Amino acid sequence: MMTIKEVREKNPEQLRSELNERQKHLFDLRSQAVTEKLEDPSQLGKTRKDIARILTVMRQREIEEGRPAGSEQQAAESESARAEAPAPARTGTPKRTRAAKRPTGTKRTPRAAKKPGAKAEARKTAGRKPAARKTTKKTKTKAKKASA
């Protein structure tokens, strides 16, 4: 476990390598936790905190130097991407939603109601037992005799 004082004493290159090591270590700990071979579960939290300390110090140094967030490489990539593709011009009309496209005074109906004859079919089968569950008088009397 590293203290914040130890992290601040390291140079940026050492911090990057330490960050990579800690992230690999965290990956290994997580895989051990999944396979239930992890002996000390508190190592997960300690490693995450170490990573957070390193990232915090790296970000503080970026702010002190006046650089934008992220690494130099990420900043260069985003600038080149912006230069290649200009942003499309936005029109003044707002995007129409489904409710706006629907004529006024009409309601949205459920899908089942849209099918022709769906309501009538639902009424026909309502309250009926399925064919497999139907019983007759003969089967009821046989069941009573068998239980007695």
Overview of this protein structure:
The structure is a single chain. By secondary structure, this protein is mainly α. It has a domain of 78 residues: Helix Hairpins (Orthogonal Bundle), CATH 1.10.287.310. It is built from eight helices and no strands. Helix 2 packs antiparallel against helix 3. It starts with a helix and ends with a helix.
In a few lines, what is going on in this structure?
The protein is mainly α and 148 residues long. It contains eight helices and no strands.
Topology (SSEs and partners):
Blueprint lengths: L3 H6 L2 H23 L7 H24 L6 H13 L13 H4 L9 H4 L3 H8 L11 H11 L1
Helix pairs in contact: 2-3
Which radius of gyration do the C-alpha atoms yield?
34 Å
Query: How many strand elements?
Result: 0
User: Given the C-alpha coordinates, what overall shape results?
Assistant: flat
Q: How far is the first residue's CA from the last residue's CA? A: 76 Å
Characterize the main sheet.
none
**Reported CATH architecture of the domain at 4-81:** Orthogonal Bundle
Specify the helix fraction band.
55-70%
- Uncertain spans, ≥5 residues at pLDDT below 50? none
**CATH class wording of the domain at 4-81:** Mainly Alpha
User: What average pLDDT do the residues reach?
Assistant: 76
Q: Which class of secondary structure composition applies to the elements?
A: mainly alpha
Q: What are the secondary-structure elements, in order, as H or E?
A: HHHHHHHH
Number of helices: 8
Q: What is the percentage of strand-forming residues?
A: under 5%
What's the CATH topology label of the domain at 4-81? Helix Hairpins
